[in-house]
Structure formats: C-alpha cells, structure tokens
Design a protein that fits this description.
The protein contains 40 helices and 14 strands. Strand 9, helix 32 and strand 10 form a beta-alpha-beta unit. InterPro entries: GlnE, GlnE_rpt_dom, NT_sf, PII_UdlTrfase/GS_AdlTrfase.
Amino acid sequence: MSHASDPPTTALDAHLDRALSRLRQALPDLPFDDADLLAQVRALALASDFAIDVCVQQPALLPGLLADGGAMPAAPPVLDPALRTDWGTLLRRHRRAESVRLIWRDVQGLDTLDQTLSGVSQLAETCLRIALEALEAEFAQRFGTVRDVDGHPVRLVVYALGKLGGGELNFSSDVDLVYAYEHDGDSDGTRALAAEDYFARLGQQLAKLLDEVTAEGFCHRVDLRLRPFGSAGRIALSFSAMEQYFQRDGRDWERYAWQKARAVAGDIEAGERFLQALRPFVYRRYLDYGALDGLREMKATIAAEVARKDLADDIKRGPGGIREVEFLAQALQLIRGGREPALRERRLQVALRALRDARHLDDEACEALLAAYRFLRVLENRLQMLRDAQTQRLPEDPLERERLARSLGEPDWPALHARLQMHRERVGREFEALLAPRRRAAQPDALVLYWRALRDGAEDTPRDALADAGFADVEAVDQALRDFARAPGVRDLSDAARGRLDRLMPALMATVATSPEPLLALRRLLAVLHAILRRASYLALLDEQPAALTRLVDVLARSALLGERLAAHPLLLDELLDMRVAGPLPQSDAFAQACTQALQQDDSEGALLALNEVRQAFGFRIALACLDGRQDGVASARMLAALADAILAAVCTLALRELEAQHGCIPQAEFAVLGYGSLGGRELGFGSDLDVVFVYDAPADAMSEGARPVDAARWSARLAQKIVALLGAPTGAGRLYDVDVRLRPDGAKGLLVSTLERFEDYQRHRAWTWEHQALVRAHAIAGDPALRDALECVRDQILARAREPSALREDVRAMRARMRAELDRSTPERFDLKQGEGGLVDLEFLLQYLVLRDGAVRPALLRPRDTPGLIDALRGEGLFDDACATGLRAAHEVLVRAGLMCTLDRRARIVAPTEALESARRTVREACAAFGLADAGVPA
C-alpha cells in the first residue's frame, strides 16, 4: 500500500522492480536485501532483459556470478554421439550462459571492451570447433574420411571473416563463414562422396546446428554469403578453385572482406597456409590507391541502403558509424600493406595504431578514431545485450533510451546522444577526407580541350594552350604529347584508366610547364607514364594524390637517374609520398632488418628479387634526401655504403645457402669479404660498383661434407663466384651491384680468392705502394668474424710498418702523376671532381700518404677508413691544425655533394667552376703543398 509521502515510481524503477521480483521467485535463497548484491543485480537488470531471462531459466548461473564475478569461462559441453538430438540444446544453453557471464563482467566493470570482444569471439570459436568436431566424427561413420590422391586425410577449413576474423565479435552478431578444403579427393567409406559434396553437406550441417532457431533460441547466426560467387556459389571450394576465383573474378569488396580472414575451425594449419598464398590478392605489392575506388562504391551502396531503409540512427551503417572507422583503416591498410607488412593486421584497433606508427595517420586523428570506435563498440554491445538482438539502431522507446544512457554512465538520453554525435562527426570528417577525390585545382579549359583533342586523334589541335601554359618549345612539346597519345598503351586503356589519365594530363602539363626545364621534365615524365599505364593503381596514386604528381615532376626535372629508376621500377613511386611525411632517414639496423626479411623468401630467386627491391627503395629514399638537401653529401655517401654492407652480407648468406645445398659445408673453413675503395671508405655513390677482395682460411686437406665434396680452395672459389653472380644477376627489380675484383693480390692475374696466408705474404713482400694506399680504406665487411678480425690485424700490421718518408712521397707523387695523365678529364672551362687537381683523389692521396708515413708511430691513424674520420684523426695527432682540418672537411663535402648531384642527373663528374668549388680545390691544393705533394701532376 503506497503512501502519499512516497516518491512516485518511475517507469525505470518499475521495470527494475519487475526484474528483481522474477529473480526472487526463481532464486528464493539469495539474500536480495544485501545492498552490494542488490546493486550488482540492478546493474544487470538495467542493461539486459536477456540476462535476466537466462538467470531465471538457469537458476545456478547467478549465484556463481555473484561468488566469483564470472572470472572463469564454463567448460564447453560434450556432444555425445549417442545423444545426437541434444547437441543443439547443449550448444545453445552454453552460449546463453557464457553470454550472460560476459554481460555480467561488462556491466560490473570487470572486463575492458577488448576483453569483452575477445570473450565473445572465443565463445563463437569454441562453439564452431566442438560442433564441427562432432559432425566430422558423425560423417566419418557415415561416409568415411576424405583422402587426396596420395591417401592423406583432408579436413574442412572454416574461415571466419568480418569481426570474428579480427577477434572483435560483437555481442549478438552473426558470424561470416567461408568453407574450403585443401585438396580434392573422395571419402573412403562404403557410401563414398566426392570432396565437394562431402564438405558441402558437412558445412550445411554445421550452419544448421548453430543457426537453427529452436525452443532454446539459436547458438550463432551463420552467414555464408561472403563465399565466392555469393549465394549462387558452392558451399565449399577447394583451395585451387578458390585461388582461381580470386585471380579471375575477385572484386574489390572481397579484398576488404578477406583482410580479416582467419581459419578458426577444422584444418587451421592448412587454412593459414592458403591465406599466405592469398595475400597478393588482398595486399598488392605496389602502392594501391585504386583500393579507394572499391571503397567509394561500397560507401555509395551503403549510403543508398541507409537512405532507403532510414538507417540514419544505425550506429554501424549510418554516417560516422562503426563501418566508416573500419573502412577507413582497411583502405589505408590495402593501399600500403603490400609494401609494409606491419600494416597487415586483422584487429582494427591494432591496425589504427600501426597506421599511426607508420605515419599514415597523425596522432590526433588516430586517438580520435580509437576513442570513437571504442565508444561505438561499447554502445553496440549494450544495444544487443538488451534482448540478444542483432541490432545497431538507437532505440526510440523513452524507457530503453533512459536505460541505455544510465547503464553507460550518462545522466540521461540527451547527454548520451550528444556524446555519440561528437564521435560520429569526427569519424565522418576523417572518412570523407579519405574518400573525397583528391582533385587539384581545376586546370584551364584550354589544356583540357587540348588533351582531349589530342587523345581523340585530331590532326589540327591548336597549340596555343601550350604556349599560354608557359612552354617555350611548343612544337617539341606538342610532338612529344602527340606521340604519347598515339601510343598503343594509351589507346588500349580501359575506360576507368582512361578517365584517370584524362584527369591527370592537363594537371601534368600545367605542372611541368612551371619546372626549370619543361621539355626535359615532360619527356622523363612521359617515360614514367608509359611504364605505369598498365598498372591502374599507379595512375590512381597520381590521380588521388596531387602532391605525388607535383613531387614527381620536381624530381624528374632535377634527376635523370631517378627518372630512369622510376620508369623501370614504378614501385618507387611509393617513396615519393613516404618522404613527405617520413621522420629520420633509416640507418644501418633498418637496412640489415630489411635484408634479413628478404632472405626469408622460399627460394633464391625470390630472395634476390626482394633484396633488389630493398636496395631500390632505400637507395631512392637516400637519393631524394640528397637531392632535396635534407641530408648532406657525405652522410648520403656513408648511408649508401652502409646499405651496400647490409646487402653484401645478405648475398653472402644467400650464396652460402646455395653452395652448401650443392656441396655441403666445411666446418673448419672461414670466408670473408674485404671492401676497398669507395665501399671501404664509406663514400659510395649512386650506381657505384663495389671493389671487393675475397679471402678464406682453412686446413690444407679440408673437404666439404656434402654429397658432392670439394676441397676448401674450390669451395671458397665457388662461393666467391656465386657472390659475384648474385650481385650482378638481373631481376625484375634490377641488378644489385657491379663488382670489381681487380684489387686482389696480383690483380687480374691472381686467383679470385686468396688464402689468409697468401694475402698477408703478398701485402708484406710484393704489394706496391699504391696497394698499401688502397689498404688504408679497406674494411672487412662480411663473412666469418674470426677471419675478419684476422684481416684487420694484417691490415694494421702492414699500415704500421716504418717507411722512408722521401721514398714514400715520391712513390705517391709518381702514382698520382700517372693517374692524372691517364684519367683527368678537366679542361680550362670544366673541372674533373675526382681526378682533377685539388679534387677528391688528391685529398685521398694526401690522407693515405700521411697514414703510411706516420702509422708506425701514431696507431690512432689506423682506425678510420673514411675521409672525415681520417681528417679528424690527423688533427687529433697534431698533423692538421683546426683550420686545416675544418677546411678539408668542408672541401670534401663540397666535392662529394657535387659528384653525387652529377650522378643523380646522369652527368659526368666534370663541372663548371663555382666559388665554393674553387675554394674547396684551393684548400686541398694548399694542404698537399704543405706536405710536399703539390703539383703531383709532374713527378719531382
């Protein structure tokens, strides 16, 4: 009996009272007058009618949750073959009880969102696994086991796509499944079935066992429509049939779907192997902005569905909803995941963080998307927990709205809705920014009309548009563009690719016209376009990213070498975008890591291709940094040498792997590679060859242990030959390096590989002074550490020998005079950066002379191999004063950078004098004169 002084009963209070009354009747022994217990039960009743229903139906459930907080999942049911009719009931009761446990932990704040999503996913996987295993045993009794042609058993593979594939299943979601099997065959029972029929029946039974609605409800709704050819396709396909489908008929939306694919039941090991084989379909090897077209189509379809079905309040499909966060992350993954393995991530939150770490999302955007996604997923779960319904629509009923708001810690519905709108608006802005066509400012109509007329084959196309755009040599530009438009590659483009090219060309022409050398830049750019016409993703890159086109024109105008590399290897277009957002340039550890990953390919050919791609990508990145002045010339040359070190070490490993497969190993043998010249001196240029010497050490009678044994000398020689061959082998990504082995003992007349003893004997007794000069820059780069250490000791001992200074000086002067007479290409108007007077070789000879002269009494001079290091060491020993050392380092940078810039533009390293260059030459000449090496062009 109510009293006038009692507060009015709200609809929410009444609802909670009814739920508590039902629980009291079902569980009369629970102490509902306990305040803590009552608060926990009211929180459960506030969030989920479904949970209250299950607690009433399964009275033992709630006391257990109150006792331990639902910390441990219940053991899955045992599906007894003798009680076949009970299987569905057991699975459904288990799923309902476990779902209530997860709801309990969620509403009591015992689990995080990630733990809830993982728990829901694990529950679905458990039900799938035990259901499949029970059905497999039943099918084995009826039809036998499917076996391939070799008699090996074949099992069904159950793939989960969507949120279950990512391990992020929401509370009442269906599960997107695809069935497959590794090999065709037949079952071996008395009622034999072909694999296709066997696994189709098995898959249908699995879906029915989980999905069929009974008096106990359902276990998991199963959706099989994502299989190849959709509802019209076969229920289960062999791996080979799946592969053929994706090669011929795979569509863009399927790439998105299979990003998250994961084998969750059946032959999981075989299933994961197939996913590795499918990776090239999902993640293209090149930068794939074409993925945005597929996303735009999916978005348009969803937008039409939202409008048709009035789904604006759908937090999954509506504006700023869950799907937009998912699609945004997946699109960025598809664009770059082929080149960046760290982005191939099934889990959405992990994927967003990986995109941030790779600098494809800024920190603020990433945190905003993560916060929005987590809020939306919590809200989605609470919507579905209410009645175990597969819904993402916001409720219209005032009571349900209030319950939802209160269960999520908000005072009322308007507060919750405002929070939701804030997140949706931020998601919407990020998503639209990604999908909005990245159009550059509209180009003048004249250029658009000019290109269209040219493309359509008009003979009398007016050229005024070219002159107005800023081209000087209009006739040559028109002819180059006309030849391009008539090329078969342009004429045969698909409609989509032609549309992209039509949008690109006017922008391209306008951008090229503003470059310092328009005709030169245009010709180089058209060569690149010819190379990428058949690869729609590259046209998409330039179409979607105007910054990439601008950057491309800028690079091509300044570097013939990079233009050639881009035309030959369009994968390098990726670097044009990366360098606009990249932080510090990669260092030696990054080179080594990339080379190690390349060696993980299954075969030598694949490993060699991967190594070439590593060299191309890193070399291109270093070249861009040098070209832009973001890194000085000496640092760029040192970085190129470090890259060569890493690749040379990897090639040695690859060659050793091949050799041991043929002849076995020699446990007592050691092998090493000495780098000479610009490689040893850490001053490598773009396109430089590698000066190397091979050395081995082994007992005289050592033999390899393989099926075709050879002695140590032949084994080492073949290893060296393989290294040289691999370095120069052509691949789809080019060749690694040309190799020069003429600096070995006795030069071209000597053996390709020397023993350590012979190498030391030669250096002690027969080497010329110039060979000891070369030894100053020598560096043991790859091979067995013990032998490398031994070679370093030999080098130190040779360089530390006492020498008669005047005789040494005359030897150095004579060799310099001979080299200049034969190699210096300077003229009165132009200067040879390397061989000219006051050039790089003069500086190198000066430093080498001083090391050989004073190495016996100044051991600190023996450590450095690079020019800056040697200058610093000589200053440290008092041979150079501070002004001389500073001037020589500056001169060295000027000469090195000038040489690199010549190489980047495919010009000989012979340049017109500049003030900086003349100052550098003067510094080098004065230093040489101070030590008696002046006028080395004429022997004293």
